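Working notes for the structural subgroup meeting. M.R. asked for a predicted model of this chain before we commit to crystallization trials. I am recording the input and output together here so anyone reviewing the notebook later can reproduce the run.

Input as submitted:
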Amino acid sequence: MTLRDRHNRQLKEMAALRLDVQRLEQERGSVAQSRERIEGELEELAAQIDGLETEIAAESDRFERLDAELAERQQRAEELQFELEEAEAVLTVRREALRQQERESQEAAFAVRGLEAAIERFDALIDQGQAMALQAAAERESLVVRLQQLSDAAAQQALQAALERRASAEQALSEARQRLDELTQSLRGRDEQRLLAERDQEPLRQRVTELQLKEQAARLSREQFALQLAEAQVDAGAEQALYEGHEQLPRPSWLQGEVTRLVSAIAALGPLNLAALDELAQASERKGFLDEQSADLNEAIATLEDAIRKIDRETRELLQQTYDSVNRHFGMLFPQLFGGGEARLILTGDEILDAGIQVMAQPPGKRNSSIHLMSGGEKALTAIALVFALFQLNPAPFCLLDEVDAPLDDANTERYVEMVRRMSDQTQFLFITHNKIAMELAQQLIGVTMQERGVSRIVAVDLEAAARMAEAA
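Returned structure, recorded in token form:
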């Protein structure tokens, strides 16, 4: 069995050497091709450099010419900018003058409208004056005609009669004035008597006014008290009972105090809510509706709590089974990878649904310690054991491992490779590695080479086919 393994190993080494030889020959051919290509590219670059130098010289001349044109255009642009600023200043002045002229034109238009209205008024006045002048001329003509018709004798007789009437009127006026003086003296005496009588009647008038005010106040108080009794819905019997306990009628001040006391007592009872019965019915109906909703909610809460308890129970059982299975496989795989020792998973809480998990590992020859106190290789092996324990629980069709054997030495790598070989019956492993021991495990190698910078090439080798070819050779 050992010779067969050694033979297989030698065959693999021969296949690896042949691959190295093929790779070197391919690299030598590619290097020669690269050299020829680089020399051709250098010649092309030299020709391109000469052409570029010529173009640079031509572009330099063109740049100088364009620079001169740019300077001239910049100077012209500055001159145009200055002219533009002057034109804008002139335009601003002309715009201001135009605005002023527009304002003056509007004011002139307003003045013209005012003058036209005044002219219309004056025209109306002129027409009215002309009509009045025509009317006055007509009256003048009629008066002239009447004056011509009157005679001088008739005017003298009328004047004499008028003088006689004036004399009689003056005499009557003198008599009337004398009678007026007598009546004025009599009126003064009567006014003095009236003033004395009014002075004597003033205290009586004041007394009558006071009595009238008291009577009016009493009437208003009675009406007010009657209105208050009506508002308080006091019947006639209660009002009569109010008067029976007194020999005389109560004073208004006492009645007012009694009313105030009763009003305060009624106010202390609070307002009378006439809609209380309707509100009570609505509140009762609302309470029944809310009670039904509360019952539905309590039933839903109970259903949800039962579902939550059922889910928690099933989850707890499933999680406990998973934890026990993973912990058992982890405890079995850890010694196989380390060649001894023990490891287990520990819950950090009493409730498995809320608890965390801590990895405790004891490699051979070491005390119990947490995974945080282990070396890099030991951490890598512990993690591999835990991952493979999870794969034992629910094997996946594929497993990708990316250089997990990098921190491992040869002995640990062989144990890792052996475990991968055993588990490859259920899972296909794809792993990236630079370790030759791990490469010997593979049934097919896929190498990625870079013969040229930035260009990758894939080389695939089927080890079983290579072994058959070696045996046939």
